[in-house]
Amino acid sequence: MDSSLTWTQPGPWPMATIDVPLDGADERALVEACLAGRREAFDLIVERHRRTVYQLCYRFVANHEDASDLTQDVFVRAYRGLRNFRGQSSLGTWLYRIGVNVCLNRVSARALPTEPIADRQFIDPAGDTGSDRLLREERQARVRAAIAQLPRKQRATLILRMYREMSHQEIADALGSSVGAVKANIFHALGNLRKLLGSEGL
Amino acid sequence: MHLSSEEFVDAAEGTRPEASLPHLAECDRCRRELADLRRTMAVAVDADVPEPSPLFWEGLSACIGERIDAESGGSWWQAWIRPRMLVPLSAAALLVLIVALAPQSRNARVTAPVVPAPAAAVEPSTDGGDLATDPLLTLVSDLSANLDLDSVSAAGFADPDSAEHAVTHMNTDELTALKQLLQAEMTRSGA
């Protein structure tokens, strides 16, 4: 991959030629490079944000295959809409918003197939072994599966609050609702989660 | 009166001190509800997403790249006939027609260009291609009446990425298809 590039700034900025090494380029430079037709710049954007987007999608669907498909959809849609990125939020937040919309649009209310623990071949970052790890994984899998069964709005609200730590106002903006509705959704999501997990799940 | 859902969430998240909710001190039910909320939140936060194989990431990036390449490279012709492209495309095509017909307009008689039939609003020429009776050529003639020579000359040096450049570099089949599209569009809009 070419590690540097020269391009002419698009958009409302003055026309100027800039030399920027792509590997260390900041978000704006990468976006501008993409808009100038440099596909490798978008590859870098994908590389930097794919894990966050995948984790978001996984939390929505609780299985690897659907999460992988949704992640691809998010980035393809982001590529199409890159001209609309104004830099008012970080690129990560912008991608996260696209991710939430893609997940909300694509994920139906039906219960999704969550994968059995034995089917997963994931790396345990902690590196520990034994029954403790198995029990923890089992419990986490149950929680993820329960979250994936929540109504879509409750699910989105809970994910944005618990795992992205977005403020109530930011969530309201992202989902087109009010702060009061966001808090009500969190309350009901946690209540439903408790019911789905049962007393032994907590 | 029991706590509202907003008060529960604020208290569970710690953004509102319990001291500001005196009802909690006298209501077992609300205290239990608050404790359950906090416990459920702790369990939810603890549920990490399992880390996929390192090989997955490269495959994912490759799939995304292939989908983008397929979208951006495979359907340029479809992209051209989208409505937002049709107006500049029509203008560019008219310009090309003007350039092509300008020298011939000095002659008394011209041979009409071969125009695919179907459009209902365009009546076929009955005299073998008279300018005065062909509505398409009349329109071109009207539009080119006030065109100066510099503009016509400059049209041949369009930017390589522009619509004009693409139109002037179309092959016969593409030009035929474009003419049909333009005729249909003119018929539809009553031009």
The residue fraction in helices of chain B comes out at 55-70%
Please provide the ordered H/E string of secondary-structure elements of chain B: HHHHHHHHHH
Order of strands across the main sheet of chain A: 1-2
Terminal residue distance of chain B: 71 Å
- Name the poorly predicted regions of chain A: 1-17, 117-123
DSSP helix fraction of chain A: 55-70%
Count of extended strands of chain B? 0
List the total number of helices of chain A.
8
Number of domains of chain B: 2
Assign the structural class of chain A, choosing from mainly alpha, mainly beta, alpha/beta, alpha+beta, or little secondary structure: mainly alpha
Description:
The complex is a heterodimer of chains A (202) and B (191). With 202 residues, chain A is mainly alpha-helical. Chain A has a domain at 130-202: Orthogonal Bundle (Arc Repressor Mutant, subunit A), CATH 1.10.10.10. In chain A, 60% of the residues lie in helices and 5% in strands. Chain A has helices at residues 27-35, 39-61, 64-80, 91-106, 131-148, 152-162, 168-175, 179-197; strands at 4-8, 17-21. Chain A has a two-stranded antiparallel ribbon. The termini of chain A are far apart. With 191 residues, chain B is mainly α. Chain B has 2 domains: 5-45, no CATH class; 76-189, no CATH class. Helices cover 61% and strands 0% of the residues of chain B. Chain B is elongated and about 95 Å long. The chains are: A mainly alpha (202), B mainly alpha (191). The A-B interface holds A 39, 42-43, 46-47, 50-51, 54-55, 58-59, 64, 68, 71-72, 75-76, 79-80, 120-125, 137, 139-140, 143-144, 147, 158, 162-163, 180, 183-184, 186-188, 190-191, 193-194, 197, 201-202 and B 5-6, 8-10, 12, 36-37, 39-41, 43-54, 56-57, 60-61, 63-65, 67-69, 71.
